[in-house]
From TrEMBL:
One GO CC term, this protein: proteasome complex
Transmembrane segments: 147-174
Naturally occurring in which organism (per UniProt): Salvia splendens
GO MF annotation terms: ATP binding; ATP hydrolysis activity
Organism domain of life: Eukaryota
Subcellular location, principal: cytoplasm
Subcellular location: Cytoplasm; Nucleus
Any Pfam family hit: Prot_ATP_ID_OB_C
This protein's name: AAA+ ATPase domain-containing protein
SUPFAM superfamilies: P-loop containing nucleoside triphosphate hydrolases
Domain AAA+ ATPase per the UniProt entry, residue ranges: 298-437
């Protein structure tokens, strides 16, 4: 089959005619019947009509299977040349209408893009600091949000909606009108043509009630730029000072003194330094599944007690290093504050910070400053210390032992601690740190001198026998003194005599401060 330009047409004329017959609704409604001979006479005019249209081969090829399956030969003879010409004109009209719709759609798309760009600029302008700080009070479902808002506003009369006080709206109405508003269902109202539609009444999202730093309670039918599913009562948010829309969530507010207690650098001590593994701290954090398999609840906390300088703080730092946990160090005297409630607030903020930084180890050094036995006292300072200890007991009961938070307390006077602090369920495990034995003293001397250039003839066992009743800190001072003596005589190695002289100087405790570098 040839077209008017003399080239072969890739599709038979019957397929083209059949496609027009089945796709044009106006042609189907006419029920046209013509003989089969007229199809061959209309080949050139039909090809000319097709050339004027914007039909492509893919559009025709999609119709080919349908024609081969559904079109019968007796229906091909039902169209004349005039009918085919009329069908082609109808098809041209349909194509023109589609082009106009496409052009209109492109114009609407460009308009929407301009609006999106304009709204993004407005959002960028509204998100400029400073924010108005607010707290989430309540989150309600959007379906009943309007009723909840009117119900609360009826009683409180100081709710703001978009900057306008609700009292001005409900105060103009009587009790019956207010009840009618509360019972009104906006979904049941008939929508008239051209009528304005209240989008807030048809909104299905969540609504938020928040209290700002200016002591205003705001109801937001539209939350803002934050996903309402991520919000919960008590969250701190930043809102726009004019529209009160929530722009961003703010981090939890902590006391600056609590933030200063966090040790930024990870501890580097390991168990070669302290020669002991504490199951109560490390295993529940590194092998939690073993406790769950046996159904054993690990201890919440550990109390380290013993003479000064025996390595209690070193033990806590080593546990934090082995578990890759955050190390939060609190000092007992630091929790004793002048104003009422400050010490309890420090304890509360410290435990809240530990939950967010989990896994975390809270180390409370010198806990006897706040954990002494309670007694009757008329001095306000003693009562404030007892309030701080009661808050510590409350926080120890407030978190589960399955949480990745462990408490390590250290003291030199375990005999004066309150029994409520020592009972099981709070500080479950008690570990005593006595003075090291002779074997332990030799090992401690080796550990503190391992980075020093020590002469091979140094006998650490003999040095350990000479350091009876020395604690770990004093043994470290012996190693430092031995190194300083070797430095003064310009030696390249630390020999046995330097260690003996260091032991004598530490025992004497009468040397000048300039000669002692501990």
């Amino acid at each position: 089959m040839c077209n008017p330009m003399g080239r072969m047409s890739p599709y038979p004329v019957q397929h083209l005619v059949a496609h027009i017959y089945y796709t044009s609704p106006l042609l189907q409604a006419n029920h046209i019947n013509t003989p089969l001979a007229s199809v061959h006479l209309s080949t050139l005019s039909f090809s000319q009509q097709i050339s004027r249209t914007t039909l492509n081969h893919s559009w025709i090829s999609m119709a080919t299977p349908m024609v081969e399956d559904n079109f019968e030969d007796d229906q091909l003879s039902s169209m004349t040349t005039e009918d085919i010409t009329r069908a082609s004109r109808l098809l041209d009209n349909e194509i023109r209408i589609l082009k106009e719709e496409l052009q209109r759609t492109n114009l609407e798309l460009d308009s929407f893009r301009e609006k999106i760009k304009e709204n993004q600029e407005k959002i960028k302008l509204n998100k400029q600091l400073p924010y108005l700080v607010g707290n989430i009070v309540e989150i309600t479902a959007g379906e009943n949000g309007s009723y909840f808002f009117l119900f609360v506003a009826w009683f409180l009369h100081h709710i703001f909606l978009g900057g306008f006080q609700v009292l001005l709206v409900l105060g103009l109405l009587g009790m019956g009108s207010q009840r009618g508003i509360l019972e009104m269902n906006p979904e049941e109202e008939a929508e008239e043509d051209g009528a304005n539609i209240d989008l807030d009444s048809q909104r299905k999202g969540k609504c938020v009630v928040l209290k700002t730093s200016t002591r205003q309670t705001i109801f937001l039918p539209v939350v803002g730029l934050v996903d309402p599913d991520t919000l919960k009562p008590g969250d701190l948010v930043g809102v726009n000072k004019d529209s009160y829309l929530i722009l961003d969530t703010l981090p939890s507010e902590y006391d600056s003194r609590v933030k200063a207690m966090e040790v930024d650098e990870k501890p580097t001590e390991d168990y070669n330094d302290i020669q002991e593994l504490v199951e109560a701290i490390v295993l529940p954090m590194t092998h939690k599944e073993r406790f769950q398999k046996l159904g054993v609840r690990p201890p919440k906390g550990v109390l380290l007690y013993g003479p000064p300088g025996t390595g209690k703080t070193l033990m806590a730092r080593a546990c934090a290093a082995q578990t890759n946990a955050t190390f939060l160090k609190l000092a007992g005297p630091q929790l004793v504050q002048m104003f009422i409630g400050d010490g309890a607030k420090l304890v509360r903020d410290a435990f809240q910070l530990a939950k967010e930084k989990s896994p975390c180890i809270i180390f409370i050094d010198e806990i006897d400053a706040i954990g002494t036995k309670r007694f009757d006292s008329e001095v306000s300072g003693d009562r404030e210390v007892q309030r701080t200890m009661l808050e510590l007991l409350n926080q120890l009961d407030g978190f589960s032992s399955d949480d990745r938070i462990k408490v390590i307390a250290a003291t030199n006077r375990a005999d004066i601690l309150d029994p409520a602090l020592m009972r099981s369920g709070r500080l479950d495990r008690k570990i005593e740190f006595p003075h090291p034995t002779e074997e332990a003293r030799a090992r401690i001397l080796q550990i503190h001198s391992r980075k020093m250039n020590v002469h091979p003839d140094v006998n650490f066992e003999e040095l350990a026998r000479s350091t009876d009743d020395f604690n770990g800190a004093q043994l470290k001072a012996v190693c430092v003194e031995a190194g300083m003596l070797a430095l003064r005589r310009d030696a390249t190695e630390v020999n046995h005599e330097d260690f003996n002289e260091g032991i004598i100087q530490v025992q004497a405790k009468k040397k000048a401060s300039l000669n002692y570098y501990a």
